[in-house]
Amino acid sequence: MGKDIRLATMRKRIGVLMGGFSAERHISLESGRNVYSKLAASTQYTPLPLFLSGSITQHRIFTLPIALLLKDNADDLHDLLLDPIKFAASQAPLVEIRLKASKLHKRSQEAIFTPEEVTYATLKERIDFLFLALHGRPGEDGTLQAILEDYDIPYNGSGIAATALTIDKYATNQYLAQHGFPVAKQFKVSPQAWQKDPTAYIDAIEAQLAYPMIAKPVDDGCSNGVTKLTNQAQLAAYVESWLPRKDPFLLEDFIAHDGSCLEITTGLLTHLAPHKAIVYEIFDPTEVLAADAILSLAEKFLAGEGHNITPARFDPDNHSAKQIGDQVKKKTRTSGKNTQPARICSNRCFCKNIP
Prior knowledge:
Helices cover 40% and strands 19% of the residues. With 355 residues, the protein is an alpha+beta fold. The strands form four sheets. A five-stranded mixed β-sheet has the order 4-3-2-1-5. A four-stranded antiparallel β-sheet has the order 6-9-7-8, sandwiched between helices. Strands 10-13-14 form a three-stranded antiparallel β-sheet, with no helix packed on it. Helix 4 packs across helix 5.
C-alpha cells in the first residue's frame, strides 16, 4: 500500500480540459476522452478530466465523473453539469454498482462520482499541467492561454500570440505568405458588401478565384463549415445561408488531390537546449484519407472513422518516398525568411542527450 502511495505522489497531475462552446465541442469531448484514457494507462501521470461549460464570457469548469466522460454529446453533458437534480437522477441506477465495487478495490473509492465546480485559482492547486483538448474558441485563440499564464499553469500548444493569430485563417495565411510560405489564394467575403451589390461582388470574386473553390469560416474549427463550391449558384446559396451571421467568411483556391498534391499532417515539437538554442522534433508526415473531396470532422478526429497512413505515401518507391518525406521535414523546419538554423531530432528523441 505504501508503494502505491509513493507512486501516486510521484506522478504528474495532468488536467485534461475538453468541451467548451464552439461548433466542435462534441469533437473536443472525443479528443479529451482519448487523451485522458492514454494518460490514465500510464505510470507517469494522474489525469483529471475537466469540462469547460458556462459561456464564452463566463467560464465554468467542472471535474468529470467517469460516467459523464463516456458521453459523446457535449450539450447533454453541459445540461447535466448545470442541473444537479437531473444529474443525480441520471446516476441513481449506478449507486448499487459503485457500492459493491468500493468493497472490492481501493481504487474505486478514489474515483470521481460527482462533478465539482472549480476555479482557475483552485485548479492551480490540483494540477501540475493542463492539457488543452478544446477545439476553436476559447482554447485556440489566446484567451485561455492568457488566463493560464496569469495563474502560472503550464499548458500544451502554442502561446498567446501564436494562437491569437492562427485562429484567424485569413490573417494566418497572409502572415505565412509574408514570411515565404506558399499559400492558397484567398478572398475574404463581407456579407454587408455582398448585400449592397451581389452581381458586382460575384464578378469581383470570380475575377480572383476559379471554380471549384472552397468556402469556410474565418475563425471556426478546421473542418466546420468547409464546403466545395463548383458553380455560381452554389456560391450564392452559401452566401445566403451565411448572411444571418453577419460575419465575414473565406473563399480560397481548391487544391485537388490529383497525384501532384497530397494533404498531410506533420507534428512538430520544440525543445529549449542549453544556451537557449531551439531544437526541433519533427514527426513523420501522416497522410489522411478522405472519402469525399474534403476531410470531414469525423475523419479527422473520431476513432474508427478516419484512415491515417504513416509515413505518407509520397511515392510508390520506398526510397523515393523517404527522400521526399525527409525534404518535407526539412521544409517544415526551414520555411520562412527569418527561421534560424536548428538541428532536427529523430521521432523518438526527447532531447535528453543534447550536448
